[in-house]
Amino acid sequence: MDKSPDAFRTISEVAEDLDLPQHVLRFWETRFTHIKPMKRGGGRRYYRPLDVDLLKGIRHLLYDQGYTIKGVQRLLRENGTQFIIALGSGDTAAAEAISQQKQANARQEEALAAEQDRVDAAEEAAVMGTPKPAAHGRRLFGLIKGEEEGPVAADGKRLSKDNRTLLQETLFDLLECKRLLDQVR
User: Fold this and answer.
1) What DSSP assignment string belongs to 99-131?
2) What are the UniProt keywords, alphabetically (predicted)?
3) Which of the 8 DSSP states describes residue 48?
4) String of b and e for 34-45 (b: at least 16 CB within 10 Å)?
5) Which residues, including other chains, have CB under 8 Å from residue 159's CB and lie 6 or more apart?
6) What is the pLDDT of residues 126-143, one digit of tens each?
7) By three-state DSSP, how is residue 152 classified?
8) Is 94 exposed, middle or buried (CB count within 10 Å of its CB: 0-12, 13-18, 19+)?
9) Taking the complete model, does pTM exceed 0.70, yes or no?
10) Looking at the domain 9-107, which fold is it?
11) Average pLDDT over all residues of the chain
């Protein structure tokens, strides 16, 4: 009596279907995080139909196409499980469509990130203003001024020119750090 196509499969059924030893399937579970059979009491594994299709795709890539485990891991990471399933079932048109869609999504994300960087830079420029170079050092918000002018410290005294210069340079360094961190995000 055959099972329904939607039925869960035991590890022995999957191993027989794929012509692989059971220990290979257990090993693949450690190498491919996408393979997650349901485990019942006593650790008995039950593979969903999608798990079986993914295993077929992995088997095809490793044994028929000559990929390494790292190569298949990279394909999974870059293209997802549906791509591997399509390759395993021989549906190269679907695999190509999935690959093209992933590439289009990646280009769109890059464009959105670049646009967000431009918006962030414009907002920062609007808020911060443009620093004006001075002969004696960098200048921001008119922080470095004449000897008798300048910001007042908490004790009510004016900062010396040297202290204002140090404060100004520290502020520029912090702004540069913020800009670099924003680029990384």
Assistant:
1) HHHHHHHHHHHHHHHHHHHHHHHHHHHHHH---
2) Coiled coil, DNA-binding
3) -
4) bbebeeeeeeeb
5) 150, 151, 152, 153, 167
6) 666 555 555 455 545 554
7) strand
8) middle
9) no
10) Multidrug-efflux Transporter Regulator; Chain: A; Domain 2 (1.10.1660)
11) 80
CA distance 87 to 144: 65
Rounded distance between C-alpha atoms, residue 127 and residue 182, angstroms: 16
Sign of the dihedral through C-alpha 120, 122, 124, 126: negative
Q: Tell me how far apart the alpha carbons of residues 103 and 125 are, in angstroms, rounded to a whole number.
A: 33
CA-closest candidate to residue 57, choices 78, 94, 82, 33: 82
Residue whose token pair is 């004016």: 158
Helices (H), the chain: 11-18, 22-31, 49-59, 69-79, 81-88, 92-128, 161-184
DSSP-based three-state secondary structure for 137: strand
Token digits for 75? Answer: 């394909």
Percent of the chain with pLDDT over 90: 26
Amino acid at residue number 136: H
Per the document, the length of the chain is 185
